[in-house]
Inverse folding.
């Protein structure tokens, strides 16, 4: 794919339970980048894919517990994901469910291609299995019959299965990663994957499950007794959604290779080891970047459904507003690192960054335009003061600053972008205090007052334009109020939350 197209993906979330803040974080980040790219490259040149991972033992167990068939259960939960994304203004272009025919057919075709070329072979599997992680473990990796990752009880299994020859491609993968510095980001994760690959021999990957143990999955085209391992099925979504194989097995797509696969660090190995090897074996190009962000924590633990410590994004966005929620997630935790979620921290940022800084600047600017100029935006000053020139320079530089922060080299630093925008807001608010426009009015300094108000209007317009990918509703609202020659002041954007009476 050329540089003027952008194809971004999120993980396909398991539908064993409702989405939580962790899931919404990845999709809000992806939405922010997709919106940003649409503004820069044109809507038709951006593809944003999300969806749901619906096969496997985990889903089957959740369906059994709910008393529904697996299909009915997934049909029910998938609605919650779709509603959440529209409720958070997440503008995906395509939503793929791994139970859809387009995906199922594609997966069967892919696995047949790999079988025919000898990269998949039958073998015996004897070892441990962790159902919640859907992961196999060898005897040597296990102590106390507990999963080395999640510490939950493992099941002992012995069965005939099919194996994908990961090991055949290990050397190639190491060389590839070494030659493509942008392939895994941030750098800490790049180093982690590379050192894992250099210090361990990859075992071949068991990519089937006997139907007698699990039949909720895609059938192996060359064995009626097996379904395909859920990870092998799910990863293929990134290509099944945007292209197809021709009769000779050559893959073509308008969008592939992906520009960016986003996820958290928990599933980096699948994306940085299994996935490139699958693509290589299928003779398909590599994605440009696989980015693993950090985790939202609750105290010391990762926020996760299985730990029972999740917070509902629907509740947070409902209580404080969609853009407040988006702002908090993107601003509070640098992309790539872990962060702790707390409602208290969210309210604090609301009151300081949104009510005091942004909301205040917009409201006071529009109030002054209304009061002193009858809501007509005055002309730009012909004799700007040094401080005004400085503020304008900062304003004019914003788009460039943001474009430098939103790329793989700088780890898609949403937080830094917002920080830069808020520096401008702070400069403008400070300037209002310094200039004291009410005294300019009193002293009849009309020219100065005009230039001053025009500068502020330009600042809030520029802030709104820069905020479009991050806080789309807020940006739109500011532009509706201040975007044209005639000001159309509305209510304050972020009325302060009274924490004292909220405590009571
Ligand atoms: N189904 C697999 C992914 C298959 S992709 C082909 C899966 N699903 S999941 O429902 O467990 O989602 C994991 C992803 O959800 C993480 O990689 C991350 O994007 C997001 N998050 C889940 N919990 C999170 C946090 N506590 N913090 C940040 N992101 C989190 O794995």
């Amino acid at each position: 794919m050329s540089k003027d197209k952008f194809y971004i993906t999120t993980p396909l979330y398991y539908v064993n339970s409702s989405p939580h803040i962790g899931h919404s974080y990845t999709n809000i980040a992806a939405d922010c980048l997709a919106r940003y790219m649409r503004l820069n490259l044109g809507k038709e040149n951006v593809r944003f894919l999300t969806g749901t991972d619906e096969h496997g033992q985990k889903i089957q167990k959740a369906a059994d517990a709910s008393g529904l068939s697996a299909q009915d259960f997934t049909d029910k939960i998938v609605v919650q994901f779709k509603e959440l994304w529209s409720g958070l203004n997440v503008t995906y272009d395509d939503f793929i469910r791994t139970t859809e025919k387009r995906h199922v057919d594609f997966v069967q075709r892919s696995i047949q291609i790999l079988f025919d070329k000898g990269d998949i072979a039958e073998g015996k599997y004897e070892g441990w299995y962790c159902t919640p992680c859907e992961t196999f473990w060898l005897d040597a990796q296990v102590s106390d019959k507990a999963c080395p990752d999640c510490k939950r009880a493992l099941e002992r299994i012995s069965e005939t299965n099919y194996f994908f020859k990961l090991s055949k491609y290990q050397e190639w993968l190491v060389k590839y990663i070494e030659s493509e510095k942008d392939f895994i980001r941030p750098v800490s994760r790049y180093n982690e994957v590379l050192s894992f690959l250099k210090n361990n021999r990859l075992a071949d990957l068991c990519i089937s499950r006997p139907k007698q143990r699990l039949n909720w999955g895609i059938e192996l085209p060359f064995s009626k007794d097996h379904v395909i391992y859920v990870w092998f099925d799910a990863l293929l979504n990134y290509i099944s959604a945007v292209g197809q194989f021709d009769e000779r097995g050559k893959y073509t797509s308008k969008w592939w290779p992906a520009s960016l696969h986003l996820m958290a660090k928990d599933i980096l190995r699948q994306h940085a080891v299994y996935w490139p090897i699958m693509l290589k074996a299928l003779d398909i190009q590599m994605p440009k970047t696989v980015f693993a962000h950090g985790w939202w924590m609750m105290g010391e633990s990762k926020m996760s459904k299985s730990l029972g410590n999740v917070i509902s994004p629907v509740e947070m966005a409902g209580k404080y507003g969609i853009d407040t929620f988006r702002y908090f997630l993107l601003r509070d935790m640098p992309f790539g690192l872990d962060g702790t979620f707390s409602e208290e921290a969210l309210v604090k940022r609301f009151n300081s960054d949104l009510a005091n800084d942004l909301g205040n600047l917009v409201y006071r600017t529009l109030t002054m335009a209304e009061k002193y100029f009858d809501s007509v935006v005055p002309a730009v000053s012909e004799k700007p003061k040094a401080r005004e020139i400085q503020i304008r320079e900062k304003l004019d530089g914003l788009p460039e600053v943001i474009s430098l922060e939103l790329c793989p080299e700088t780890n898609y630093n949403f937080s830094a972008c917002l920080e830069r925008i808020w520096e401008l807001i702070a400069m403008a608010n400070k300037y209002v205090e310094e200039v004291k426009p009410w005294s300019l009015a009193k002293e009849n300094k009309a020219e100065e007052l005009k230039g001053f108000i025009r500068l502020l209007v330009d600042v809030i317009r520029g802030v709104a334009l820069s905020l479009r990918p991050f806080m789309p509703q807020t940006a739109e609202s500011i532009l509706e109020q201040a975007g044209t020659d005639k000001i159309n002041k509305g209510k304050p954007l972020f009325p302060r939350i009274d924490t004292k009476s909220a405590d009571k």
